[in-house]
Amino acid sequence: MNTLKNIASQVLGLPKGKIQDTLVRRETPEWDSFNHLMLISEIEKKLGIQFTMAEVEKVQTYGELKKTVENKTK
Amino acid sequence: MTLKPFAETISFYRLHKKEIEKKDSRADVRIALLPSSTIAGLKETMAVHCHEMGLRPDIYVGKYKQTAQEILDPKSDLYNFKPHIIFILSNVRAALGETYLGPYAISQGTRKRWFERTLKETEKLIAVLKKSDAKIVISNLEVPTHSPLGILENKEELGLQKTVREINERLCDQYKKDVQVFIFDYEGFLSRIGKQNALDPKLYYLGDITLDPQYFPALTEQLMGYIRPLKALTKKCLVVDLDNTMWGGIIGEDGLGGIKLGPTPEGRPFWELQKYMLSLSERGVILAINSKNNLEDVREVFKKHPHQVLKEEHFASLQINWSDKVENMRRIAEEIGIGIDSIAFLDDNPAERALIRSALPEVSVIELPEDPARFLETLQRLTLFDAFSLSPEDKKRSEMYTTERKRQSLKKSSGSLEEYLRTLGTTITIRKASPDSIPRVAQLTQKTNQFNTTTRRRTEEEIRKLTSDKNTLILTVDVKDNFGESGLTGVAIVRLAKENWRIDSFLLSCRVIGRGAEDGLLSAIIKRAKRAKAKTIVGEFIPTPKNAPAKGFYKRCGFVLAESVGKTEMWEYSPIKNFEAPKTVTVKEQ
């Protein structure tokens, strides 16, 4: 999942070390609602997958994001 | 400067923007963006593009969906920002509101009234904005591709799609002659990238984002077409390579019959590229060649290849030799008389592109895809040559450079400079600036770098104000000779105080320098000063890295250096003395 971490680090402007499963959206100022959309959008394009709108809204932590992506790339 | 393909993501731009902002803070272009949906990320993208062009932008983004309020309130942040250019980015969903999805819930009459009202409101807003000095760019509306009527949509007299098309048309008509207001064809832009791709429904519903930010770089590139002429950064000349750029294959190896050019699958990409380049030349882009080849081989293609669209006379400079391309590029600029920074370079070879890019960073090196089938679309997308106006001189420009080549060869074969000038038979016509010539006058003040005494740039609006000022005289000069007409190629702006006249600007297009036009124009000023009984004429000179050709002009004409203020030199002349243009030039006054 190195690529996912790279994308998240670039879009959110956070060092890779900070991108942990426990990273919570509403506690991370860089992960605001616009950046969240950009993050999803770039993941979709770079990994060739599609999120539904409900999935986009459901993701609250990096761990959940990783899991959703894993399920789609399996 | 590098023109990158549009592969970068918004996060790339947002990170770069931070780096740029660290480096400098003095802005030299203020851009206002007034959106009607979320455009977060566009500002950063634009900042990076501006920075690549050597600009330091300051970009203001209007408050979300408050464009009208900001325009109508004279105390709004928009006006405090004092923008040089304002982009109104309209959005069909916001503009049409309920009508967008339910167009036929209202009667045709109501639709028509709505349509007229919407246009009037837009025009009213623009009229308010026009009081500022800013250029105004308003995007037209995306024509919907859906209709509840399905296949019957175009049977309606004023259906949904027609309503939007009509708005777009009427907007264009309204501002056709306006030099301050421009309509950006956003509908055309969306058609190119594909309307279905442009809108990501998730981004739209969750964030009111109506253009997927992955297209912001492409959008920005189109909008830069308005920023470049604003800052006199429009490119004047397209320099091209030959082998595998203008035709497929290598002429020196494959020969006349072997190169790919013409109506065959392999030849058509190059054939069409040449046709497009010809149309660029016809609108005033100067063409030149920078190629490693034997000149004779290339001449054979010009003369004998049945599908060679561009002929020798279409090129203002032919650097076809085995020297390195950097040296050739310098020679091209010198021969044509333009700055290196006015050049865009088209070459299929990535190594040559890299060479030019590193040696001459002021050249715009066009990044070409590997496949020649994609060359044409790359060229068609460029906004490097965009200008706010095209004068008759622009359209004839390529022809003029060709006749200039003929003049140069006459000069070489003439025994003396005087004999050359006599054979040329130059006639100049002096006129006062008039409404017809104002756009050209402004353009010359914007673009002339070399024979320009003060390099004061002026907009059309500023020139227009000056022409109605009693104490300002603007003279223009048209130049023609036995080879043809160069058109309006010189301007002098003179400030008239009672007894002291001051030549605020004096400039000539470099291609007419040295033929007596400069002396002719100066003699016309001096004659008028004498008639008005002025005691002194002061010619200002401000040196720049580019205006060496104008240095020494006043001295040569008998002016005396009276004082220097900082870099500015004041050269004085007493108009009691007569000043005559050389006999080799005929001066007409109108």
From TrEMBL, chain A:
<protein>
    <submittedName>
        <fullName>Uncharacterized protein</fullName>
    </submittedName>
</protein>
<dbReference type="InterPro" id="IPR036736">
    <property type="entry name" value="ACP-like_sf"/>
</dbReference>
TrEMBL record, chain B:
<dbReference type="Pfam" id="PF21211">
    <property type="entry name" value="FkbH_N"/>
</dbReference>
<dbReference type="InterPro" id="IPR036412">
    <property type="entry name" value="HAD-like_sf"/>
</dbReference>
<dbReference type="GO" id="GO:0016747">
    <property type="term" value="F:acyltransferase activity, transferring groups other than amino-acyl groups"/>
</dbReference>
<dbReference type="InterPro" id="IPR010033">
    <property type="entry name" value="HAD_SF_ppase_IIIC"/>
</dbReference>
<dbReference type="InterPro" id="IPR000182">
    <property type="entry name" value="GNAT_dom"/>
</dbReference>
<dbReference type="InterPro" id="IPR023214">
    <property type="entry name" value="HAD_sf"/>
</dbReference>
<dbReference type="InterPro" id="IPR036514">
    <property type="entry name" value="SGNH_hydro_sf"/>
</dbReference>
<protein>
    <recommendedName>
        <fullName>N-acetyltransferase domain-containing protein</fullName>
    </recommendedName>
</protein>
<dbReference type="InterPro" id="IPR049369">
    <property type="entry name" value="BF1531-like_N"/>
</dbReference>
<dbReference type="InterPro" id="IPR010037">
    <property type="entry name" value="FkbH_domain"/>
</dbReference>
<dbReference type="InterPro" id="IPR016181">
    <property type="entry name" value="Acyl_CoA_acyltransferase"/>
</dbReference>
<feature type="domain" description="N-acetyltransferase">
    <location>
        <begin position="428"/>
        <end position="580"/>
    </location>
</feature>
